[in-house]
Imidazole glycerol phosphate synthase subunit HisH (Leptospira ilyithenensis), 208 residues
Amino acid sequence: MLVGIVNYGAGNLYSIMGALEYLKIPYELVSSQERLSSCSHIILPGVGSFRKAMEKLHELNFYDPIIHCTRELNIPILGICLGMQLLCTSSDEDGFTKGLNLIGGHFALFDSSRRKVPHVGFDSAVPDSGSVLFKEIAEEVDFYFVHSYRLLETDSDTKYAYSVHDGERFISAFEKKNIFGTQFHPELSQGNGLKLLGNFVQLTTVNG
């Protein structure tokens, strides 16, 4: 087992590294496309701007290798926060920008006239039944969020988890075969987040 953390200059690396070290899971900071295919699992972190992050993925030649590793080699991938957003079709952040399109869906800004933006703090996440990412995690446990954009359009054949921000229900996680995403930060979510990361790295075959 070797978890590859995509190091493209837009990720919350140290907290993820610390969580994996705590779980005694071997990992590598992957800074070149050639190393991705040798990993058993991939984590795509991210903080900051969707547009700038996509520009960095293209600049460092990660775009096609990530798609190849997930679609052709079926390597499990977990996108965290901005990383989850990058796995989807597009976002409005800093102007309309196309993502990796591994999961269908578009991200748009929370309506700041009706709720506080950004959404920051601990909130519960309720997954669809049969979720492998949330396996053996109690219902409606809290995870740590910090984000301003949420997923609107979605694939019908994908499992989701849902959270609520100031009365608006939004998608806070997804899973489709070997592709996973969490809008929250599992590495900053104490025991619940560590259990979720452990569930992800224990996957040896795709679900569904």
Remarks:
- Residues 68 and 110 are 32 Å apart (CA to CA).
- The two ends are 22 Å apart (CA to CA).
